[in-house]
Amino acid sequence: MTHLAPSILSADFTRLGEGFTAIAEGGATYVHLDVMDGHFVPNISFGIPVVESLRKFADKNGINMVFDAHLMIDNPKEYIKPFADAGADLITFHCEACTSAGEAVEIINLIRKEGKRVGIAINPDTPSEALKDLLPQIDMALVMSVVPGFGGQGFIEHTLDKARTIRKWSDEQGLPLDIQMDGGVNLDNIQTVAGAGVNIIVVGSAIFAHEDVTAKTREFINLISK
Fold first, then answer.
1. Which of 85, 182, 188, 212 is catalytic?
2. Is 161 a catalytic residue?
3. 2, 104, 105, 194: most buried by Cβ count inside 10 Å?
């Protein structure tokens, strides 16, 4: 099954509860939480208090959705437990934020210790091989299809080959791996993304820029359900 993961980075933060409810009513099964620290990437977005508040809102309103925390931050191992405690179900860190494969394994183990699903992300210029040996230890590989840091960027086409390669490796090893793609996805390219072996697709401004967020969410889901 292919899942849509709307990114609240593009939502109206003065009406965040409404935006969150709208994507839930539209059928989204994931909510993507882009956490930026102003160091690993040049932008600052939001952090633990927003994730915690959104989780409380979801629980209060009976909204069952995977909280997909994408940590675009330096020193991610210091923040695994805080984000787990705040309500993240899936915690993704960047391999570029690690000094070694050993540190990546340490972070994987920290996420597992908190009982959460593990994701590792790679930037557009990072080779797929950076993840190859780690695939059996994780639940999801995130392929960035824009340079991380800002919403609304154009899709980088060569990242599709990375997704295809990672899917090939996971299939050869018989792994139940999810592959996520994040950045520049819209109605024109989402089916191509899904066709590259991606089964969790992040969409931000292409959903939240529209007045009827619920209808737009449904439109995206209908395309990837065909």
1. 182
2. no
3. 104
Say if residue 16 is exposed, middle or buried (CB neighbours under 10 Å; 0-12, 13-18, 19+): middle
Alpha carbon distance 101, 88 (integer Å): 24
Percent of the chain past pLDDT 90, that is, above it, reads: 92
Mean pLDDT for the stretch of residues 13-32: 96
Q: Is the confidence at residue 152, as pLDDT, over 80?
A: no
Which is catalytic among the residues 34, 37, 68, 178? 34
In sequence order, the β-bridge partners of residue 35 are 71
34 tagged catalytic: yes
Q: How far apart are CA 18 and CA 12, in angstroms?
A: 9
Reference 148, options 32, 80, 70; nearest CA is: 70
